[in-house]
Specification:
This protein is α/β, with parallel strands linked by helices. The chain has one domain: Vaccinia Virus protein VP39 (Rossmann fold), CATH 3.40.50.150. It has a seven-stranded mixed sheet. A hairpin with a 6-residue loop joins strand 6 and strand 7. The mean pLDDT is 94. It binds S-adenosylmethionine.
């Protein structure tokens, strides 16, 4: 999920649907400074855990469909990378499209939107990929995950 991320990247790294932070932990383990992380989670309970465990990260309780407003309050226009654990495949098509479009709008060119999925199909809508000139890369299956997870990365060109 985070192998492609350069920890020395100068900008922010946005995580969507962080849960209790397994990808947040991996990002920090690869050397990303905690204060560069913007961690968005809609569950207040999980947000509390994230705030406790990652005190230097920007942890926000909110819905990814409102990403533009959330980033505006933080005075952030662009992020270098997006890591998403949001269960896009179980959402309605319209919501999936809104969330992905919001994320791509704020992703810098050359950055990637990486998404985990428990179904063997890319959950990022084709029209959003086309609109933002994305290049889809299948990164593989993580068998260590239960259930096994599929990972896709869309690079914004
Ligand atoms: C399947 S969990 C994944 C958590 C973590 N990334 C992992 O891999 O263990 C999905 C998380 O996305 C959060 N989530 C779902 N929809 C969201 C939304 N629209 N905005 C922000 N977070 C959302 C859920 O609350 C949940 O914590």
């Amino acid at each position: 999920m985070v192998k492609h991320i350069n920890p020395k990247t100068s900008g922010r790294i946005l995580e969507l649907g962080a849960g209790i932070g397994p990808f947040t932990n991996s990002l920090i383990k690869t050397g990303v400074p905690e204060e560069k992380l913007v961690v968005l989670e809609q569950s207040p309970e999980f947000t509390e855990i994230l705030e406790r465990d990652f005190p230097s990260a920007n942890v926000i309780c909110g819905d990814a469909k409102n990403l533009s407003g959330i980033l505006a309050t933080l005075e952030i226009e662009e992020v270098d990378e997006v890591v998403s654990g949001i269960p896009l495949n179980v959402m309605g098509g319209m919501l999936r499209e809104i969330i992905c479009d919001e994320a791509f709008k704020h992703l810098k060119r050359g950055g990637s939107f990486v998404q985990v999925s428990y179904l063997p199909r890319c959950p990022v809508p084709k029209n959003v990929i086309a609109k933002h000139a994305g290049k889809k890369i299948f990164c593989g299956i993580t068998l260590r995950n239960i259930p096994p997870a599929f990972v896709w990365r869309i690079k914004k060109t």
